[in-house]
Each structure stands twice: as structure tokens, then as C-alpha cells.
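input
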Amino acid sequence: MRPRPGTRPALPQRRAARLLTAWLLAVLLLAGCTMVERQVVSVDEQARREVAILTGTPAPDPPPSAKFAALTPLQVEIGLKRLIVEPSTWTTLLHDPPTAFLSPEQVGWARDAIAAELPRLRAQQRLQLRFRDRFHQFGVEVELYGEGANLVYRFTRLASQDEQPGDTLGEKPTRPIAWVRLVEQPGQQVDTDRKAYILREALFATNVQGQSLAELAAAIDQAQQERKLPAQELEPVRALLRGQPAFSLEALRLYLDKLETLLRAREQGLFTREEADARKQKLLEELVPASARQ
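output
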């Protein structure tokens, strides 16, 4: 029964109204605490890409290494070239062979944006890049931030198709289907959470000589790509990077030079396969100092 004009609502009604008001206020306060502000830094509409700063994101744990303050474009480029994926063509259940995720032009754009903005991030900020993948022109959205010695790539979209009319607007409760699959490289860790595909690059992790593991891994990648050294011939030295390698970058480059010469001699018939295998093993043993062997 409705109250007469000029009379106050019954006590249960007033109580319910106060509870509803308190609940709405709590929801608004909670939303304010978790709201992320997005500030666009640059937009290239023709290339369909964008750089932004997200503020109000969770602080990384552990905090980023102080080395991120002096991050160089070369260090960034090394990491970007080590983003390797297996693209999907007709279905996400089947994948093509591993290849670079970014084109050379995309590497240059991302390198400049990351080197300029990442060192200036505060504790509750992340750098966000939006662009199109080079295989399908599907959407890519990635958040970048330092976490200890790692550079974290948090892909909230990983070559994902655009939303269709009628799709729910706003952040998705789960990560959208990806049309590429991240391929973990030495010094990297690939993971997922409910909303993203995550790759951690040990950008500032070093060996016992203080040598960057990312630089060592990049030298091996370069040998495979530019010198055309077979992947199976490089697997033994890649395996060393999964531990705590004791060799320097200079020693690694010398090893790769000798390995290339040995493989060429084997192809010319100067060594039998057995002789070449024995010499390869000797080269690998020379790469690791005796003091570091188990």
C-alpha cells in the first residue's frame, strides 16, 4: 500500500532505500579504485596503430630493475626480434612453422616507442601498443612493463579478429582467440592468465660473467638467420642458455665462427660425419670454461 501524501515511508522501506544507497556507493568507490586511465601518446591512422600510457594498473611484483631507466633502443630491438610465433592460417588448431611476429618496419616503430616511453613509467603505469599483425591484419594489443629483470609483454589481443556487431562492448572477461601462438625462446617464459597471453623476456638477466642472456640468445638467432646455420646444429648451444652459461658474447661468436667453418668442411667432404660430430663436441667443451663444468 502506498503511503499517503505528506507521510514518511514505512521503516522497512526507508531501511531498504538506505541499504541500496550504501551498496551503490560501495560499487562506485570500488570502480573508482580499479579504474584504469588511458592516455594516447601517438596515433597513426593510416598504419592503424597507436601508443598509449595506462595509469592505475597493478604495480609489478617484484619492482622493475633500475636498469630500465637506462633502457636503450638496441636492447629493445633485440627483444622485439625474439618475438617468435607460429601463425594459424585456416584454423587456430593448426599452425605454420615458427617465424618472426613483427615485420622489420614494425620492429622499428615499436622499438622507438618503447625506448622513449618505458623508462619513464611509474609504478602503476604500463605502456600499451595497438597495431595489426602482419599475417592476417588482425588486432594486436599489448601492455609492456618491467618486472624485476624481465620485460613483460602482456597481450590482451594476440592477432585477434575484430569484434562483430552485437558483441559485448568493453573489456572481455576472457582472452580473445589468438591466430598466432607464442613460441618460447631461451631466456623467455610464455604463460597465460584469464585475460591475456604473457611473454616474459629476461632482458637484464645475466650469466656469471655479467653477460646479458638476451644478447647471447640474439647472437645465436642471428647465426641461424644470416649464416643459415641449421637449427639442429645450434640446439646444443641453445640448451646451455637454459642454465647459467659461463661464456662471454665474444667466446660465443668465436664458437659460431668455428662451427660454421666445420660445417662447411663437412659439406665439402673434408670430414666424415663421425669426425665432424667429435669436433663439434670439442668446440662445445671449449666454449665452457673448465672451472664451470660439472
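quick obs: Residues 213-292 form one domain.
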